[in-house]
Amino acid sequence: MIVSMKKYTFLILASRYEAFLNQLRDAGVVHVTLKAEGLADNPALQESLNEAENLRKLIAQGAPDQLLQEKADVQNRMDATRKEIMRMEPWGEFDSRRITQLREAGYNIRFFTCSKKNYAGQGVTVNEIGDTVYGVVIGDEPMDESLNEVTLNEHSVNELQAELEGLNGLLAAADARIEAWKKANLEDTKRQLAEVEQRIDWQKVELSGDTAAEGSLRLLEGFCPEDKTEALNQILAGADVYYEAETPKEEDKTPIQLRNNRFTKLFEVFTGMYGWPTYGEFDPTPILAPFYLLFFSMCMGDAGYGILLMLFGWMVGKGKINIAMFEGLGPIITTLGVGTLVVGFFSGTAFGMDLSALFPSIDYLFLNGKVITEGGVQYVSKAVYSAQGMEGGYDAMMVLALLIGVFHICLAMVIKSLCYTKRFGFRSQLGTWGWTLLIVGCLTAFIICMVLGVSQQTTKVVLITIAAISALGIYVFNTPGRNPLLNIGAGLWDTYNMATGILGDTLSYIRLYALGLAGGMLGGAFNNLGLMVMGGSTEGATWQWLPFILILIIGHLLNLAMSALGAFVHPLRLTFVEYFKNSGYEGKGGMYQPFHK
Fold first, then answer.
1. Is the pLDDT reported for residue 386 higher than 80?
2. Which of 142, 193, 240, 371 has its CA 20 to 30 A from that of 351?
């Protein structure tokens, strides 16, 4: 949920402005509205910003440019030496000084390479590798055009190898200097950055106060959460300041603070990735959280991988795995692992194995069969429809994915209608309610009539009535006060967009089924590949167990990584595109960032 805010306007004597800012910072609850004009032209602020940027760069690099450049120079020399070793290896070991002595004695020695099919036998062959001949010509006779003359390095391969070993020592010394710098300076640099950032905050707030009464007064604006206004008012009562507190209006750029329970709070990171809500919008996180968990779990679709994710998340949370990109994400990874374990079990897959085949006695729990209607009874269990000799039908997980998509979009439409009505009034949202009533209302009425066994004629009348009422909002009253013909035209255009958009949005949810199916099939393929090494059974020879285990470990880790990437991205797409579009969520708000020490 979005925390309610109060908008504060402060009027301060210019002589008391700095003292008031200190009091405001000590309170640590007011988000000051920063003005854009004047900040870019302030030399002191720009100097602080540049200093902060340099410190961030230094922390990110982990060492000064000079030390990093020294290491890079050594690495470049090592790369060049390795290339020379590879180039010189076909020529074998030789003494470059003897070649120099021969040349000084008057012998013209030239080296060449040539393809075997073009080599005419000129000179002396030194080596043959693949389709290439390496040789030498001694004398002043012209070289054949098919020969490519090359210049050898002054050092032999052994000498180059010795040089490379020396460079390895230089690289180790450069790494040691970098580590020593980190140990001695990194924490101090971080503290220095924190001080500079606090100075920047102060400068921005100080410059955001407008002047009034020929410079004798300063005017400042800010926002405070309603549950913290009492403490703020007590501080202001003892300060030399005049202030007003009011409820923010729609046009105010009110900062957003979210307050959610422990589960929902884990998913606020995804809300932030898209954009924080504006003050007049709704917090999408309580809806985003359970659906993202469900979508991720369906895309993974493997109970075994769920166990691995739980273990990985626990180790990240306990600090046993320190990877920068996963910092602070241990709890949500563990939660996603739990969801994957549950959904993977009911989808009937664990490490690529078919659970319905492993546990036929509880086959009815698994949704890896097909939805088939036979004699008025729907079958889902794989064992049941196989025993009945049934064919065709639809995969149960595919049907479930589409049903979830329909429900998700319908929920988005209802939320849009409710929130837009709250923000803009019911009269201006008759068109929005018309579409919600048409789609959600007709689906709901149809399901109710089916469950209650209502006759086809009565069901038809109910649906036509709902459609007729919806049409009034869509085509006639979509924009009250406007020419009816324009409303009809706008309604027809909306009809085209809705017809194509809703269909495409619904079909997008098939990816939940497709990704889970692909991951399960790939996991099963690695299992089959391992069994092939074992000769088709687990009773192979002792030496066969090692490749069998390696194939399973490497294969499933690779499949887990690819599945996790897809399960992370595609639920975000379903949320950011299909759901947010149909719910009318804009996400153009700013985060509540109080001015504090």
1. no
2. 371
> 308 and 560 in contact (C-beta within 8 Å)?
yes
Distance between CA atoms of 300 and 337, rounded to whole angstroms? 9
State the Rg of the chain over Cα: 36
The phi and psi torsions of 126 (rounded to 5 degrees) equal -95, -40
CB 367 within 8 A of CB 346: yes
Structure tokens at 513: 């089924």
The DSSP letter of residue 278 is P
Contact 339, 511 (CB under 8 A): no
Mean pLDDT (whole number) for 330-357:
88
Q: What does the DSSP 8-state code read for residue 257?
A: -
**In degrees, to the nearest 5, what angle opens at C-alpha 205 toward C-alphas 203 and 209?**
115
For residue 237, the SS3 value is helix
With beta carbons less than 8 A apart as the criterion, state whether 164 and 85 touch. yes
Residues 209 and 202: their CA atoms lie apart, in Å, by: 12
Beta bridge partners, 137, equal 110
The domain locations on the chain are 5-66+174-246, 78-168, 262-392+508-583, 413-507
CB 372 within 8 A of CB 477: no
- For residue 422, the one-letter residue type is K
Q: Which DSSP string corresponds to 531-570?
A: HHHTTSSS---HHHHHHHHHHHHHHHHHHHHHHHHHHHHH
> Could you tell me which residues come within 8 angstroms of residue 258 by beta carbon, excluding any fewer than 6 positions away?
1, 2, 3, 265, 268, 271, 276, 283, 285
CA-nearest of 459, 458, 462 to 437 is 462
**pLDDT band at residue 370 using 50, 70 and 90 as cut-offs:** low
How far is Cα 122 from Cα 146, in angstroms, rounded to an integer? 10
Residue 93, phi then psi, degrees to nearest 5: -90, 135
Look up the pTM and report it: 0.77
Q: Which helix (H) or strand (E) holds 148?
A: strand 148-150
User: Do 594 and 23 meet the contact criterion of CB atoms below 8 Å apart?
Assistant: no
Contact between 476 and 494 under an 8 Å Cβ cutoff? The reply is: no
The pair of three-digit structure tokens given for residue 517, joined into one six-digit string: 């199916």
Q: Give me the percent of the chain exceeding a pLDDT of 70.
A: 93
Query: By CB neighbour count within 10 A (0-12 exposed, 13-18 middle, 19+ buried), where does 153 fall?
Result: middle
Q: Taking the alpha carbons of 416, 421, 423, 429 in that order, is the dihedral positive or negative?
A: positive
Closest CA to 316 of 304, 305, 327: 327
Place of tokens 């055009």: 145
Contact 77, 138 (CB under 8 A): no
CA triple 446-450-453, angle to 5 deg: 135
Residue 160, phi then psi, degrees to nearest 5: -65, -40
Q: What is the pLDDT of residues 37-61, one digit of tens each?
A: 767 778 888 899 899 999 999 998 8
> Which CB contacts under 8 angstroms, 24+ apart, belong to 159-166?
160/81, 160/84, 160/85, 160/88, 161/85, 163/81, 164/78, 164/81, 164/82, 164/85
| Cα 499–Cα 504–Cα 506 angle in degrees, nearest 5 | 100
